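re: ur question from earlier - yeah i can do the single chain one, its not a big deal. heres the input i used so u can compare w yours
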Amino acid sequence: MVRKNKVLVVGAGISGLAAAKNLNDSGYDVTILEAKDRIGGRLYTDRSLGVPLEVGANWIHDNNPERNPIMKIKEDLGLESHKCSLAGSVASFEVLDKEGNKIKVTNKELEKIEFRVGIFAYLAKYLRPSTSLEEIFNFVKKLGLLSFIKEEALFVLIQKIALEQADDPDKVSIEALFEQEEFANDEAVIGGYDQIAYYFEKELHNKIILNSPIQHINYEQDIIKVVSGNETYEANAVIVTASLGVLKKEIIKFIPELPIKKQQSIKKLGWGTLNKVMLKFTHKFWGDKDFIVVANKESKFHAWINEEPICKEPVIVATISGENAKKLENKSDEEVAQIALNELKAVYGDKVSELDSYFVSKWGLDPYVFGSYSTNKVGENNQLLRKNLSTPVNSKLFFAGEATSVKTAGYLQMALQSGLREAENIKKIYPN
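and the output i got, formated as tokens:
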């Protein structure tokens, strides 16, 4: 009889699913332990408003199938999608002031901002690497090099990067400016982004154990013991795909403790929160652009997503990140929805139609996530920290997930690729 190596995967997010499918296809005995009552992790499509809406991951960032495996899966499955652009172009953006007046922002203006800020950010990367995103913009502004554009255009660019990082501009490293240079356009999957998760789950459904949060992982001996509730599972290798938020909270106890380098990486890496308020109205009253930015510093919600092209219903989604996102988590869903509604009324006035229903995400309060995704924390060598986090321990304990993606973190395709990376590492160490 051919011996099958036993591998346990902690977490049925996209990284865990990708790793498990890869190993299962190669003949390994794989089991996934998932704390939640569903698969997907931060890839989560909610249908409580009668249409599929993305609570977590929203887009296929970079729709080049040669670079992005998510895009290739989408094409292989024949899924429909809506093309948009979160990258450099402003074609998908509508910028409004606090009274709802349209503000013209051109691609040429944004390119000039990015070029001038980029030069000083590049220098600061070597001369003063602890510079924050906010500091570099303020410095270039003080030099008078941004006087050619309206304050609103600058506001749009800073907000866009801050939202991508799920944190406030004063906490985000200038490294964030160098990460998405190669990205092409983006696409939103029609019918639910969770269809990507179910692509991986199709052959693994009998190997996934839901409602199984992990208490201990004991890797002292050759055989690793993983404790979940009253159950103890044994394996030759374990892939941990728990979120960085869970690792920071030390929800999972490791015996022995993780190496100091890994502990320091978990502690020092940035961890952001991005929440959404999904509002479904009786009819659409906003424009046709994919994204609406309200250039008003006093607003709670600056960036809005027009979901109507994707779900074919009058749905608009408010996004919020950083400290504001965390503060609003202490309010009731009704209060948060009302704040978002009031801000829409401030901009659109009497055009606002009757609110039909709403959904509010609170990722920071999720007991199996505690936030949204890793960020480029100011003052840290983030790439080195991610590399240390991704390094296996004793050739038995492997780590995957977006936070372990060394060059670029925070994206679904990076989470997927990290799972495949660790599956390949296991196959080298434990050949069947």
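The longest strand covers residues 274-281. not sure if urs matches, ping me
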